[in-house]
C-alpha cells in the first residue's frame, strides 16, 4: 500500500517517469493534442567550433547568447498556453572519435527534456546542426555510406537513454539535411535517396532498442525539411514495424520575402499576396500528406523582426489558422521570451499563437 502511494505521488510530481500505459498514444492523437509549440532554440543546438571536446557543457549551451535553460523558463511557456516544446540538440561536438556521446552532454540533454515533460508538455528531441550546411549528415549517397554507422550509433545511444520515458516524448531523426552544394530548395535523385535512407535507419534503430521505443512516436523530415514540389514528390515514408507511430515534419518560412529576406526582395507588410502564398502552401501539404493519412507537423516558422510587429502578428495569426484547418500543429522558432530576464519580449505574438489555434 505504501509503495503504491509513493508511486502515485511520484507520478503526480514527475509525470515523465510514470510507467507507460498499456495503450500507447498514437502519433495522430499526439499531434491532435498539441495546440501550440515552441522551439527552445539556440541553446543545446549551439555550435562552438572554438571549444575543445570536453569543455564545460554550459559553455556550449550558452555559446549563442542564451542563458542556461531553467525549469522556470519552461514553466512560463506552459503558463502562457504552450503545451509542446521542440528541443533542438547538436551532438557532433560531444562525440569522441568512436562516436560515443559524452556522458555529461547526454545528462544535460536529459535534464532539459525532463524540465519539459515534468510540466506535462510534449517534448521533441532531435539531431539538429549535425545536419545543415556544415553538418556531417548530408544528402549525398557516398556521404550516407560513410556516415550511416555513426548515425545509427548516435541514435542507439539517444534511444537507450530515453527508452523509459512515456509517450509525451517524441524523437525527430534529423533536422534539415542538405546536399553538398548546398541546395535549400530542391536537389537530385541521389540526394533524396540518401535522406530516405537516413530516415529508415533512424526508425529501424530506435525500434530495435525496445522498451517504450517499440511504440515511441517518431518524426522524419523531408529533404531540407522543405516543401518544394520535387522534395514532396521524392520523399518516401519509412517502413515501420508498428502502425500509427510515425509522422512527417516540414519547416516553412513563408513567404520568404516577408519572413527572412533582408535584401532588395524584402517586404515588411503581410498583405493579401502573402496570405495567398501561405494558403497555397498548406493546401499542397494537405494534399501530399494529411489527405493521404500521413500525420504532419510544422516544426519551424517565424518572421524576422524588421520593425513591423503588427505585420508579424498578422503573419503568425494567419499561419496558425491555416495550419489548424488541416490539423497541423506548429512550433514557433525561438523568440517570444527573454530568457535572461524571464519576461515576455513578444507577448503580442504569443497571444496571436495561443488565441488562434483550435
Automatic annotation (TrEMBL):
Domain annotation Glycoside hydrolase family: ranges: 56-334
N-terminal signal peptide: 1-20
GO BP annotation list: cellulose catabolic process
InterPro entries xref list: GH (IPR017853), Glyco_hydro_5 (IPR001547), Glycosyl_hydrolase_5 (IPR050386)
Superkingdom, taxonomy of origin: Bacteria
Keywords associated with the record: Carbohydrate metabolism, Cellulose degradation, Glycosidase, Hydrolase, Polysaccharide degradation, Signal
GO cellular component, one term: cell surface
GO molecular function, one term: beta-glucosidase activity
Family membership: Belongs to the glycosyl hydrolase 5 (cellulase A) family.
Protein name (database record): Glycoside hydrolase family 5 protein
Amino acid at each position: 500500500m505504501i509503495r503504491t502511494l509513493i508511486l502515485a505521488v511520484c507520478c503526480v510530481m514527475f509525470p515523465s517517469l510514470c510507467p507507460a500505459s498499456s495503450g500507447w498514444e498514437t502519433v495522430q492523437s499526439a499531434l491532435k493534442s498539441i495546440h501550440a509549440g515552441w522551439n527552445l532554440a539556440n541553446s543545446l543546438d549551439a555550435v562552438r567550433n572554438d571549444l575543445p571536446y570536453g569543455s564545460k557543457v554550459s559553455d556550449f549551451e550558452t555559446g549563442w547568447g542564451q542563458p542556461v535553460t531553467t525549469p522556470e523558463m519552461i514553466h512560463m511557456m506552459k503558463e502562457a498556453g504552450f503545451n509542446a516544446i521542440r528541443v533542438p540538440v547538436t551532438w557532433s561536438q560531444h562525440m569522441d572519435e568512436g562516436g560515443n556521446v559524452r556522458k555529461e552532454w547526454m545528462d544535460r540533454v536529459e535534464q532539459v527534456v525532463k524540465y519539459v515533460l515534468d510540466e506535462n508538455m510534449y517534448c521533441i528531441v532531435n539531431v539538429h546542426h549535425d545536419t545543415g550546411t556544415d553538418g556531417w549528415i548530408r544528402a549525398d549517397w557516398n556521404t550516407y555510406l560513410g556516415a550511416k554507422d555513426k548515425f545509427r550509433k548516435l541514435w542507439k545511444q539517444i534511444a537507450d537513454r530515453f527508452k523509459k520515458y512515456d509517450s509525451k516524448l517524441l524523437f525527430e531523426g534529423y533536422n534539415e539535411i542538405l546536399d553538398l552544394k548546398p541546395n535549400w530548395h530542391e536537389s537530385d535523385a541521389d540526394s533524396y535517396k540518401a535522406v530516405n535512407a537516413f530516415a529508415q535507419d533512424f526508425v529501424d534503430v530506435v525500434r530495435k532498442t525496445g522498451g517504450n521505443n517499440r511504440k515511441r512516436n517518431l518524426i522524419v523530415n523531408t529533404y531540407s525539411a522543405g516543401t518544394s514540389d520535387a522534395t514532396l514528390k521524392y520523399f518516401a515514408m519509412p517502413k515501420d514495424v508498428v502502425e500509427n507511430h510515425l509522422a512527417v515534419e516540414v519547416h516553412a518560412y513563408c513567404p520568404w520575402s516577408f519572413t527572412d529576406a533582408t535584401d532588395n526582395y524584402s517586404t515588411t507588410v503581410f498583405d493579401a499576396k502573402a496570405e495567398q502564398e501561405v494558403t497555397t502552401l498548406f493546401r499542397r501539404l494537405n494534399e501530399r500528406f494529411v489527405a493521404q493519412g500521413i500525420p504532419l507537423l510544422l516544426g519551424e516558422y517565424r518572421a524576422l523582426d524588421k520593425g513591423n510587429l503588427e505585420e508579424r502578428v498578422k503573419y503568425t495569426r494567419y499561419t496558425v489558422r491555416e495550419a489548424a484547418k488541416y490539423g497541423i500543429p506548429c512550433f514557433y522558432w525561438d523568440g517570444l521570451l527573454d530568457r535572461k530576464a524571464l519576461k515576455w519580449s513578444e507577448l503580442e505574438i504569443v497571444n496571436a499563437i495561443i488565441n488562434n489555434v483550435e
